[in-house]
Amino acid sequence: MTLSQQEVAKVAALARLALFDHELATMTSELSNIVGFVSLLEELDTTNVDPLAHPLDAENVFRDDVPSPSLSTAEALQSAPRHDGQYFLVPAVLGESGAA
Amino acid sequence: MQPADLSAIDLVAAVRQGDLSAVQCTEAFLNRIQYCNGAINAFLNVDRAGALACAESIDVRRRSGQPLGPLAGLPVAVKDALCTADLPTTAASKMLENFRPPYDAFVVSRLRQADAVIVGKTNMDEFAMGGSNENSAFGPVHNPWDFSRAPGGSSGGSAACVAADMTPVAIGSDTGGSIRQPAGLCGITGLKPTYGRVSRRGLIAFASSLDQIGPMARSAADCALVLETIAGHDPGDSTSLTDAVPRYTSLLEQPLAGVRVGRVPEHFAAGLDPEVAKGVEEAFAVLKAAGATVHDIAMPHAKYGVATYYLVAPCEASSNLARYDGAHYGHRASAKPSSAFESPLIEMYCRSRAEGFGPEVKRRIMLGTYALSSGYYDAYYAKALKVRRLIRQDYLDAFEHVDLIGGPVSATPAFKLGEKTGDPLAMYLVDLYTVSTNLAGVGGISFPCGFTKSGLPIGFQLQAPALGEPLLLRASDRFQRLTDWHLRRPPNLTALCTPKG
Question: Where are the domains of chain A?
Answer without folding.
Answer: 5-42
